[in-house]
C-alpha cells in the first residue's frame, strides 16, 4: 500500500509539474505574440508642427510597400490589403478608392523624405495609438485587422456597361438647379487642354451653355446623401499671374500636368463622398457656407458652395465675375467615371442621370 501511495503521489507531482510547464510555455508564447503585435515608431517634429512618422519606418514595421512619384508628388501606399493614395498639398486621404472624412492627414515632404501625421495610424489603418516621449506605440494585427475594417470595394469600373453605370449614378441630382448638361465638347470629360498639356477631367457648367442664371450667388448643391471629405475654407489663390504661369510652363515642359499643380488650378473645392464608392469633386468655387465642414453629412438639398472662378486666370487678376462656372469631377472608387467610355457614351450617361 505504501508503495502504491508513493507512486500515486509521484504521478500527481509529475502531472502538476507538466501542467505548470504548459502554462509557463503558453505564457511565454502569449508574451511573444504580444511583442510581435506591439509596434513602435520614432516620431519627428517638423517645423514646429505636430509630430510625424517617417513613411519608410511605417512600411518596414508593417511589411508594407509604397511608390512615390516625384513629378506628381503622389504617394501610393500599400499596407496589408489596403491601398492608400495621397497628393502633396491635398488634405484628403484616399483608402481603397474611397475618401476618408478627416482633415488631419496630409503628406509632408521634407529633405526628400516622406512623412505622415500620427493620425494616419488611427484613421487609416484603425489602430489605437499612444505616445510616450518621442515614440508612437500601437498594436497591429495584420490580416486580422482587415476583418474589422471596411471591405475593399468589389466594383470594378471597367466591368460596368453604360446601363449599369447609369444605374449606379442615378441617385445623383443636378448640382445647379435649372441648369442642363452642356454638350459642347470642351465642357465634357476628355476634352484637350493644350495650355497645360492635359485634358479635361470633368463637367463644366457655364451659364451660356447650361443655363440656370449662373453668378457668384448661384448655389451648388451636394447632389445626394453623403459626407464632406474636403472643404477649402482657407483657400489661398495664386499670388500673381506670374506664379500661375510658372506652374503652367512647367506642365508644358514635361508634357503633363502634375497632380499637385492640377489641384491648385481647381481653386477652392468641396469634395463629397457617397455610398457605392461615388465621389464628387466641386471646383472653382467662389465661397463655401460656414457650416460645411469635413465630416458634415449632406443631401441633395444641401448647399455646399457657390459658383466662382477660383484657380483661373480671371480670379488671379481679381476679376471675380468673369468666366464663372462650376467644374465637377465624378469618381467611382478613385477612377473618373468616364475612364472606359467614348464621347457618345459619356453624353448618354450624363443625359440619363440628369
UniProtKB/TrEMBL annotation:
Name of the molecule in the record: Peptidase family M23
Q: Which residues form the signal peptide?
A: 1-20
Question: Is the keyword Signal in the record?
Answer: yes
Keywords for the protein's UniProt record, in alphabetical order: Signal
- PROSITE patterns from the entry? PROKAR_LIPOPROTEIN
- Identify the domain of life: Bacteria
Q: Which Gene3D superfamilies match?
A: Glucose Permease (Domain IIA) (2.70.70.10)
Q: Where is the M23ase beta-sheet core domain?
A: 200-327
Pfam families on file: Peptidase_M23
- Return the SUPFAM superfamilies for the record: Duplicated hybrid motif
GO MF assignments: metalloendopeptidase activity
Amino acid at each position: 500500500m505504501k508503495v502504491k501511495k508513493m507512486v500515486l503521489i509521484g504521478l500527481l507531482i509529475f502531472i502538476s509539474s507538466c501542467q505548470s510547464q504548459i502554462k509557463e510555455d503558453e505564457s511565454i508564447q502569449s508574451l511573444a505574440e504580444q511583442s510581435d503585435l506591439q509596434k513602435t515608431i520614432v516620431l519627428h517634429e517638423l517645423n514646429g508642427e505636430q509630430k510625424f512618422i517617417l513613411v519608410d519606418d511605417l512600411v518596414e514595421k508593417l511589411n508594407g510597400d509604397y511608390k512615390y512619384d516625384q513629378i506628381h508628388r503622389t504617394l501610393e501606399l500599400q499596407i496589408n490589403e489596403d491601398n492608400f493614395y495621397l497628393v502633396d498639398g491635398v488634405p484628403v486621404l484616399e483608402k481603397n478608392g474611397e475618401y476618408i472624412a478627416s482633415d488631419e492627414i496630409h503628406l509632408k515632404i521634407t529633405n526628400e523624405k516622406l512623412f505622415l501625421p500620427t493620425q494616419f495610424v488611427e484613421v487609416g489603418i484603425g489602430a489605437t495609438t499612444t505616445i510616450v516621449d518621442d515614440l508612437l506605440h500601437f498594436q497591429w494585427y495584420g490580416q486580422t485587422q482587415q476583418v474589422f475594417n471596411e471591405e475593399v470595394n468589389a466594383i470594378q469600373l471597367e466591368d460596368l456597361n453604360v446601363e449599369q453605370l447609369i444605374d449606379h449614378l442615378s441617385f445623383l441630382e443636378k448640382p445647379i438647379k435649372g441648369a442642363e448638361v452642356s454638350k459642347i465638347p470642351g465642357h465634357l470629360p476628355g476634352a484637350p487642354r493644350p495650355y497645360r498639356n492635359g485634358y479635361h477631367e470633368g463637367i463644366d457648367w457655364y451659364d451660356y451653355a447650361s443655363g440656370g442664371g449662373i453668378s457668384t450667388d448661384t448655389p451648388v448643391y451636394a447632389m445626394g446623401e453623403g459626407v464632406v471629405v474636403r472643404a477649402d475654407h482657407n483657400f489661398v489663390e495664386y499670388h500673381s499671374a506670374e506664379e500661375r504661369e510658372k506652374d503652367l510652363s512647367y506642365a508644358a515642359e514635361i508634357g503633363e500636368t502634375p497632380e499637385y499643380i492640377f489641384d491648385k488650378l481647381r481653386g477652392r473645392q468641396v469634395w463629397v463622398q457617397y455610398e457605392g464608392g461615388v465621389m464628387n469633386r466641386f471646383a472653382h468655387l467662389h465661397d463655401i457656407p460656414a457650416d460645411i465642414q469635413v465630416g458634415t453629412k449632406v443631401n441633395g438639398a444641401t448647399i455646399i458652395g457657390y459658383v466662382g472662378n477660383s484657380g483661373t486666370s480671371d480670379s488671379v487678376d481679381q476679376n471675380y465675375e468673369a468666366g464663372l462656372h462650376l467644374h465637377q469631377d465624378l469618381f467611382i472608387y478613385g477612377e473618373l467615371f468616364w475612364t472606359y467610355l467614348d464621347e457618345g457614351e459619356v453624353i448618354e450617361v450624363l443625359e440619363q442621370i440628369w
